[in-house]
Amino acid sequence: MARLADYFLVVGYDLEKRGGGEGQGRILQRFPEKDWEDNPFPQGIELFCQPSGWQLVAERQPPSFFVAVLTDINSERHYCACFTFWEAVDNPQLWKEEASEVDEEGSGEPLPAQLYGPKSVVVVSRLDHTEVFRNCLGLIYTVHVDSLNVPLETVIGNLLTCTIPIAGGSQTDESSVCSLNLVPLNLTCDWLLGCFQPEEEESEDSSRTITLGAGDRQVIQTPINDSLPVSGCSVSQLFRQLGIVNVLYLFCAALTEHKILFLSSSYQRLTDACRALLAIMFPLKYSFTYVPILPGKLLEVLSTPTPFIIGVNSFFRSETQELLDVIIADLDGGTVTIPECVHISLLPEPLLQHTQTVLSMVLDPELEVADHAFPPSSIQPSTQKIQDKEIRAVFLWLFAQLFQGYRWCLHIIRIHPEPVIRFHKAAFLGQRAQTEDDLLTKVLDGMAFARFVSERGPPYRPTDLFDELVANEVTRIRQEETMPRKVLSHARELAQQLFKNENPYPAVAMHKVQRPADVTQSRPFTAPSCCFPHLDEVTVQLFIDHANAKLKSAPPVVRPELKAMVPSGPPLVDFVDRNGNVLANSARRLEVVRNCINYIFDNKMLEAKKLMPAVLRALKGRAARVCLTQELNQHVLQNRAVLDDQQFDYVVRMMNCTLQDCSHMDEHGIAAALLPLVTAFCRKLGGGITQFAYSCVQEHMVWTNMQFWEAMFYSDVQKHIRALYLETDSDAPSTEAEGVSSAEQSALELASEQSRLWPTLSKEQQQERVQKEESTVFSQAIHYANRMSYLLLPLDTSRNRLLRNTGLGDGESVSNSYLTNSIAGSMAESYDTESGFEDAETSDVANSVVRFINRFVDKVCNESGVTNEHLKALHTMIPDIVQMHIETLDAVHRESKRLPPIQKPKLLRPTLLPGEELVMDAMRVHLMSDGREEATGLMGGPPLLPAEGAIFLTTYRLVFKGTPNDPLVGEQVVTRSFPVASLTKEKRISVSLPMDQFLQEGLQLRSSTFQLMKVAFDEEVASDLAEVFRKHLHKLRYPQHVQGTFAFTVGHSAKMVVEHKTKDKNQSLKTLSKNLVKSAKRTIGRQYVTRKKYTPPTWENRSSLPSEMDEDEISVCEEPDQSSLTLSSTIRSSDRQTMSNVVERACCRDYQRLGLGTLSNSLTRSKNEPFRISTVNRMYTVCRSYPGLLIVPQSVPDSTIQRISRCYRQNRFPVVCWRNSRTKAVLLRSAGLHAKGVVGFFKSPNAPSAGPSQADSTSLEQEKYLQAIVSSMPSYSEAGARNTLSGFTSTHMSSSDSSDKLRQPKIGALMKQVMGGKEDMPGTFSRGALGQKARVVSLTPSRVSSHRTPRGKWGSIRGSGRLSAYNPDVGNRLAGKDSSQPNGGPADTFFRQQRAYLYIIGDKAQLKGGKQDSFQQWELVPIEVCDVRQVKNSFKKLMKACVPSTPTTDPNMSFHRCLEESEWMNLLHRVLQVSVLVVELLDSGSSVMVSLEDGWDVTTQVVSLVQLLSDPYYRTFDGFRLLVEKEWLSFGHRFSHRGGQTLASQSSGFTPVFLQFLDCVHQIHLQFPMEFEFSQYYLKFLAYHYVSSRFRTFLLDSDYERIELGVLYEEKGERRNPQVCKSAWDYIDRLNKKTPVFYNYMFAPEDEEVLKPYSFISNLKVWDFYTEERLAEGPAYDWELARGRQEERVAEETVSVAGGERPDTTAPKSQRRVVWPCYDNTSRVLPDAITKLLQEVQVLELELGQVSEKWKDTWDKIKTQRTETRLESRHSFSSSLLMSSNLSHQRRSQGVYLQESSVGSSINLALDCEASAGATPATGRTSTSTLYSQFQSTESENRSYEGILFKKGALLKPWKPRWFVLDKTKHQLRYYDSRKDKECKGVIELAEVEAVIPGMPTMGAPKHIEEKAFFDLKTTKRVYNFCAEDSLNAQLWMDSVQSCLSDA
């Protein structure tokens, strides 16, 4: 029984203490005055009576009632029911104070006539019966107000003496059931006394009412089970106020211990809301600060750091605003505000959805049928009380799901004297597969759950609804969870039980409580006539004393406590596996694990080895790991299993693999199951020493996790305690049947049984059991101290490994260095010995292990009640255990070192290039798989990675070569390599090897050739060696100087990688180089002072020339008028050879071809040629990064050029680089203008200027320069050089053919796109090839059949037809027509009505301020350029997309998403778009000047692409080479700087501008496969080698630097090492002769074809160069290496045939073999049809013993035959052409075209060839090289004598016939492979020849040739042996050479 009310108080306004504007309350009276012993009086109640503060008011308020909750120091809650009413205050003192205050304020308002003060009557109780308190206090108030004839003392006395049962249904008040209304007033006192002599019958009779003796009667219903909370209607009210989602947020926040604050203007609602939140948290109990109503004076409580649930009146809302970590729920406004810094973990997903659904069905049942056509007549939600219980039932159901099976994870570690229970959190989460679930993890870690375990853990206790639910309803919950209807009906059943619990007798709820008369009659509220009276303390105390006496005399009411065994419910395991991964648990995998283990123990090692990789993969799944532990268990006999070395090794590997995939929590208990096994499996080492498995599986985090050890310890203790009681039970006599059942009992059931029997045992028995349990725990603690030392002490205790990577130091500062402590300790013991220093290392590990074990022992022993004596004994034992174990380990470590090492695969050495040398010895590594899945076997095929092998660092490459770990592909060789120079990023990583327990250190190396190497160093590689490797790698990647790169060091020894001084090649070059330096020095003062952007390296570093060689100076005056100087007059004879090289440079040959000028007739040339070759920059003084010879307008003198150049960045002024042969429009390139230049440039020529300033004159000269370019155009001169453009347009229009008219509209639209009209963004993927408003201009031949076919081709995209994506309207304006669109858009202001002669493509940012001058003949096209930084970042992202470092499942990281985010395609699109625009403009007759950034990145890209698209010559081998040499190399693209080739440029990073250009070419190639002579492989080859530093071609930043280093004009005859090619072009030419790999068989160009590719992103393809990989041989761009491997493979095959089994001649041998795309080089394994046929022809020729013909000759023969056959029979496609497998990209729209064009071109070619090569038709050369008959090799003119001679090769080489040419002009004897060969194979300088003498035949000379046909040529270096066809020829040769010598 419990008191209904503990204290009754009257609290009033304190008139004395009023001050400072705020009043105070004080307790006027309190009953009883003495505290109850069991319940002290709570302090501070007066604050809670008026939470918003005590104040007087001018108007009387209606009475109010609310319940506040106070929590005392013992966490007991006290419910304070406050009933407050207002009384008039009459205190003259007060009036004065009020008046004076008001006067001071000076408000001037009249004082209120009357003030009212609050008074509260308060009941303090430990029971929460809100309604009963409301009624009782209301009755007291009614008695006072209506002055009923009942003494207030009686009523209050009765209230304080009521006792009611805490639980068990509705009860009567068994003490004084007073009905004073039946007793006459005068007898009251006697009756009262009579009440205290109880009569038996009365107490027997149980009326269910209580009455306070004022004519009232009420039933108190106490809940049947007091563990279930009572909620009334508060829960449903809370949901109505806040809504489902908000309440769920609050619910989760409360579970995860966040701070929650309720705001409302009603106090009672605050209490109800808090009560509701606690009710839905059942069965968890809230154990933090809980204050439903917080007084305003205590608001600082809100800044407490601990979690809380608090309610505050909305009056204080403003003061809650600055709380940053509090969740605020506004009950009145229905909002929940969650601060940004607070993260609330919500319920796990399907559960959250189900809960929300069911809650909405409870709260809003109409929602479901709201859409029905015939909704049911009425669906009413349940009444509020029932609804309240339904909501709570849903939450009960939710908790039953969250906690189902929790009892199976309880460990009972003591039963007597009190049960001690621990919860195994990891197992619970693991078995439910919810380790990742945030909410559940936090809930299990929280205090509420700890209390839940301690209250609900014990197995023998009273049970409630939740226990039944978890035990019996789990199966039903599981089946129904996805069916909301059934869940709802289940919830309703539970709701019935909850309702029944709260209202056990709903029928008898009769209340009779009087209310104040004025309230009942609904009159306006009147004041009570007098104040609340002072009560008589004695009378009330009398009541209380009598009641106490009566209680004491009455027999105690004993309610039997219904304890029972708590049922556990179904175990967890059943329902987890349905979520588990089906694959992981497949029976097949478990079978593999079992078989492998059986093979190991049956000693079938070979079988086991084969299965091992599959087992290690299977062990990623939980089921397989469990299976492993079970299987291994079966092989343990009496706790021991001795294995041999190999068995031991395999078992340890499997254990490690199992453990490495376990988390440190060990949620699946795998580590727990392995723990006994690691101390069982062992092997014998020498000297009688045994090594156990634990010494090999230590490096896993789980062993350093204290929670793991605790859980393990508790589960073992539970087992032993269970065994203990099973024994004692079986000792007791029992029937057999009982014995069986006891054996199957779980520990909890046993404990429950023991708890039930405990009271029946005698004291001695009880004591004995307690001792037995305690000693069980103690022995386990010793056992665990041993186990922990086994797993924590490393085998080699000197390796301080333990501290470094484990968490042993948690909780205490490891960094305080145990070392110092241990030294100090040992020094104290033995001051004069050095032992302290000796074992400092080991004691370091030992100390930390001892500490860890001590912490563990303290924790578990305190929790499981071990006595202090035992604990002390343990603490003294632990250091000895550890020390003893260290000694054993030392012996094991010594012996284990003597074991023979495990057989590792043999290291395979890579093939090296000639001149390539190893820098470091092979280092054994594992190549790990990265984010590319092809090689890992995930996409089918065998797993080639991870592989084991070695990494080699050579002077050129980084190579990995090894074999896959998987034995199924173990015979394959895996190679991955990339050039050291292409390394872009290197970072250290830690990798766990698949077969090993250790986390190895590794490296991740990324290369710009799209290769990634993730290697983990084998444990045999010392870490310092790995460091040395990194340093070497860094040194090679970033040499001090470009001369340190492989291209320069090749052939030298690797030692010379460090910087070395080179001897210059020849004297003439020396002088030029010296002169360059001198003249540059002179100009540097004048010109380079203001330059900040590009500072060349200092001269000291630049050149190793001695400074005293000054005598050979070129005279250049300070401001020379260099136009008057010709080349021959300025350069001395010693330099002529060098300058003739300049003339022979690619650019000059090309300028001649284009008709832009020649050097030979520089003095005599006619002045009417518009352009000339200027030598102004021959000393590189004007522009360091330009070539020596430049094309400028004829009329501009050199002096002007020097001045103009200063306006441009880097002095890169506009020069002509190409001319359109048809329209004669020219293409110019320059850098952007300096800021000053821009302003001057746009000044109108007739603007008034302040004075003739320098800037003006320059801008004038600039204008003249542009004018000179404009006037050079024929269209300009045709127009009669008038300044108006109308003439130009009309003449141009009339002269242009119909096709031009068709094409003009395109340009405008192109412009608009390039300049970025807002409405047409090219970057979107979705828009495809057509803009929104674009009208389609079709270019299909059918439309224009009447005209000539249009020149210019748009690339076709398969399936889209030929659509042009351009808007004709804007173009109309460009073509001089009116726009059909009235609103012409943004272009109106920009495009004038006529087309300009010259368009200047400039950077938008630069051209901002410029105004267009209508009289100028040029026009500006501002475009946005992609910044170098953009390219750099884009490339980084592209690399990560194509070669990710880790596999990802995140859909936002998929390949296409990453590709899109890299914006690489976008950049290509922009470059192509600008290029197509320029092509269009040039083709329409306007010249274009590209003037972007510094003129060496985007400018170069655009200019090169324009030439490639406009001029078919550049689409041949020679042309493309020439294009790159001219535009990229000569015009100074900064290859070294952009590629980060040296240490100096390391910081600038890698920016692949050239790669971007090659990618654009690749895109064009895809759209026009028949226009290019070279194949895609050619482009990939260049893309690879431009970063590889294998060739010198792409090194250095300009011609100037190349001359300075002496690499620009290397003579071909001077090669020291003929195998080493210094130039990429030479290499390509050589290779092209041998194999058609660079050749495009579809090459069939059309005449004068101008290409216009589509550039929309949807038309661009990802280049396979970025994604392809060949693990068989590494990158396929070093041909020798690839060929070497192929030959090896062939050799192996032939050996295997020869080696024994004779090939079966009867059955044909299958030629089939598996080809893996990521492993084999497909193009080589499966060559296309033509290549294959050519190879077969070659093989046949070899077999027949013929000299095999070159593939090109064969191909050309076929080609000519094909043309002839086609002339005869014109069918649409020649079959031979279709042999190529590549025709999917065919871009001709009709076969007829193909036929006509190729016929035409082939015939022409044949004729050209005949004309040039005499009578024999020369089919041997690439037909297109002679496309331009005006361009002929200068060599052909200088042939004095030629013919075939046999020449003996150098040292041990055979005699070979060669075609020799004697060149008098150049004073050389050159030789070629054959007459048709254009590529010179070697040169003999006649200057070096000493004599020509008849010779003798030597060994191997050609047979049947007379002796006199032999002659020798003696040079200063060696003797050449020659043999002519006969003696006559020999004599002729000797004479010719002799005459040349005498001429010289």
Percent of residues in helices comes to 40-55%
Q: Rough shape?
A: elongated
How many helices? The count is: 66
Q: Structural class of the secondary structure composition?
A: alpha+beta
Average pLDDT works out at: 74
Please give the number of β-strands. Answer: 47
- The unreliable regions are 98-108, 169-207, 520-525, 574-584, 733-743, 801-807, 809-842, 1054-1075, 1077-1137, 1242-1254, 1280-1305, 1317-1351, ...
Strand content: 5-15%
Straight-line N-to-C gap: 136 Å
Our Rg estimate from Cα atoms comes to 50 Å
Please state how the strands of the largest beta sheet are arranged side by side.
26-25-24-23-29-28-27
Q: What does this protein look like?
A:
It is a single chain. This protein is α+β, with helices and mostly antiparallel strands and 1944 residues long. 41% of the residues lie in helices and 13% in strands. It has 66 helices and 47 strands. The chain has a seven-stranded antiparallel sheet with strand order 26-25-24-23-29-28-27, covered by helices on one side. α22 packs antiparallel against α23 and α52 crosses α53. The longest helix has 31 residues. About 21% of the residues have low confidence.
